């Protein structure tokens, strides 16, 4: 059974940066796409970014394109999300998830293993 644990969340001032990390154990992520999702206050969980198994294919939601960078280190079983130029609307609980397969999908239904989430709060 794969367990995913997010870390790196916290309070951060707008326009500053934060780096999140997702560590996997109990199973491999090396052959699966991994994504980051977030849920803001009173909002539905939404796609943020995803990366293919080899770290080449990357997808981002429009609102974070150019500001966030997803990367992975299969040797360490980790996937990171570098968040720059943070905005108030980035405030949310961030979750990492392993895809059901190799496809780099953008919907929660495409992922079947989820972390517990880490809170990111952006303040003015």
Describe the structure.
Helix content is 0%, strand content 50%. It has 124 residues and is mostly beta strands. The mean pLDDT is 96. Strands 2, 4, 5, 6, 9, 10 and 11 form a 7-stranded mixed β-sheet that branches. Strands 1-3-8-7 form a 4-stranded antiparallel β-sheet, with no helix packed on it.
Please tag this protein with its features.
7-stranded mixed β-sheet; mainly beta
Main β-sheet, in a few words?
A: 7 strands, mixed
Shape: globular
What is the number of beta strands?
A: 11
Order of helices and strands: EEEEEEEEEEE
Helix content: under 10%
The low-confidence parts are none
Category from helices, strands and their pairing: mainly beta
- Provide mean pLDDT, rounded: 96
User: How large a portion of the residues is in β-strands, by DSSP E?
Assistant: over 45%
Query: Helix segment count?
Result: 0
First-residue to last-residue Cα separation: 40 Å
Q: Tell me the radius of gyration.
A: 13 Å
């Amino acid at each position: 059974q794969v367990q995913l644990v997010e870390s790196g969340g916290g309070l951060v001032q707008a326009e500053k940066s934060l780096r999140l990390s997702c560590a996997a154990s109990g199973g491999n992520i090396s052959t699966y796409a991994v994504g980051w999702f977030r849920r803001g206050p009173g909002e539905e969980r939404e796609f943020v970014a995803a990366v293919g198994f080899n770290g080449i294919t990357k997808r981002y939601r429009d609102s974070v394109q150019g500001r966030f960078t997803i990367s992975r280190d299969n040797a360490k079983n980790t996937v990171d999300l570098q968040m720059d130029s943070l905005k108030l609307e980035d405030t949310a609980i961030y979750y990492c998830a392993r895809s059901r397969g190799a496809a780099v999908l953008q919907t929660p239904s495409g992922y079947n293993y989820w972390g517990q989430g880490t809170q990111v709060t952006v303040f003015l």
